[in-house]
From TrEMBL:
PANTHER family: PEPTIDASE S12 (PTHR43343), PROTEASE DO-LIKE 8, CHLOROPLASTIC (PTHR43343:SF3). Residues 200-276 form the PDZ domain. SUPFAM superfamilies: PDZ domain-like, Trypsin-like serine proteases. It comes from Flexivirga caeni. Gene3D superfamilies: 2.30.42.10, 2.40.10.120. GO terms for biological process: proteolysis. Coiled coil: none annotated. It comes from the Bacteria. The keyword Hydrolase applies. This is PDZ domain-containing protein. Signal peptide: none annotated. It holds the Pfam family PDZ. One of its GO terms (molecular function) is serine-type endopeptidase activity. InterPro entries: Chloro_Bact_Ser_Proteases, PDZ, PDZ_sf, Peptidase_S1_PA, Peptidase_S1C.
């Protein structure tokens, strides 16, 4: 069971133990935005954990438990899920600190869905090649195993429909483990990020810049990402970016809103240098090259 502390609350999910020394597979969305991670394994022992790496595009992450040894590992299937086969999904249902199981069967394979955060509808992502099941997967099961009748993990629980009856979806374990192996080897790619994330050190408004009242000296609003605060000692503050500024470009790309900023930073690492353009609260334009810091969030 994986429990996380976020900047704006808490989260809960599940993981699959891959190695006896505490390498654990889970969904990226289980640890996304977390500032600390606690994991309780089947024996009852609790560990702190850090993210080794992730692939947000495929919703896969690998975490390492601190000081773990002698853990029981999952038995992984090497073949694909079969239509109609009986399965059991296991997970921390509702994030209540207990592992639950729900049974069903594989109702389809190779499925594509667009998944988003429950309630907010944010962070939408398209996932492909999924195993579909009628097992009643609920929030908290994410990152947990989908197990066949032989006790082998055939998938990683990832998403479910919000309506009833529930339709659940899992990433095939062969696909997830292939990404996990790449993360363990420390191999970066266009989708796989290894280690800590880069930070510009700004707090961005969730509203569009045209709604925030900041404008240029001629009264025209500026398209971009609106800065409502900066981190002391961060890259943005060092460059002179202040609350009331609007970031208009980063890394040579025009910034049309917070998502553009996030997408560019997702491809960068702490210590990378990047160009930033912004308009200050008085309407003056600036550009600078900054050295990105380390994000406190996963």
């Amino acid at each position: 069971m994986i429990d996380t502390v976020l900047t704006n609350g808490e989260g809960a999910g599940t993981g699959i133990v891959l190695t006896s020394n505490g390498i654990v597979l889970t969904n990226y969305h289980v640890v996304d935005g977390s500032t600390s991670i606690r994991v309780k394994v089947g024996s009852g022992s609790t560990y702190s954990a850090k993210v080794l790496g992730s692939d947000p595009t495929h919703d896969v992450a690998v975490i390492k438990l601190s000081g773990a040894s002698g853990l029981q590992t999952a038995s992984l299937a090497t073949s694909s899920a079969l239509l109609g086969e009986k399965i059991t999904a296991v997970g921390q249902g509702g994030g209540l600190g207990t592992l639950y199981k729900t049974s069903g069967s594989v109702t389809a394979t190779g499925q594509q869905i667009t998944a988003s955060d429950e309630g907010t509808g944010s962070d939408a992502e398209t996932l492909q090649g999924l195993v579909q099941t009628n097992a009643q997967i609920v929030p908290g099961y994410s990152g947990g195993p989908l197990v066949n009748s032989s006790g082998k993990v055939i998938g990683m629980d990832t998403a479910a429909s919000s309506g009833s009856p529930i339709t659940g979806y899992a990433i095939p374990i062969t696909s997830a483990v292939k990404i996990a192996n790449q993360i363990e080897s420390g191999t970066r790619s266009s989708t796989v990020h290894i280690g800590p994330r880069a930070a510009l050190g700004v707090e961005i408004s969730t509203q569009s810049s045209s709604d925030n009242g900041f404008g240029t000296s001629n009264g025209q609003t500026t398209s971009g990402a609106s800065v409502v605060g900066t981190m002391q000692g961060g890259a943005a503050a060092a460059a002179g970016i202040t609350a009331g500024s609007t970031i208009t470009s980063i890394g040579g790309k025009q910034v049309t809103g917070p998502t553009t900023l996030t997408d560019v930073l997702e491809t960068k690492y702490p210590g990378d240098k990047i160009s930033v353009g912004w308009v200050d609260a008085q309407g003056q334009s600036h550009t600078a090259t900054v050295t990105l810091g380390t994000s406190p969030e996963n």
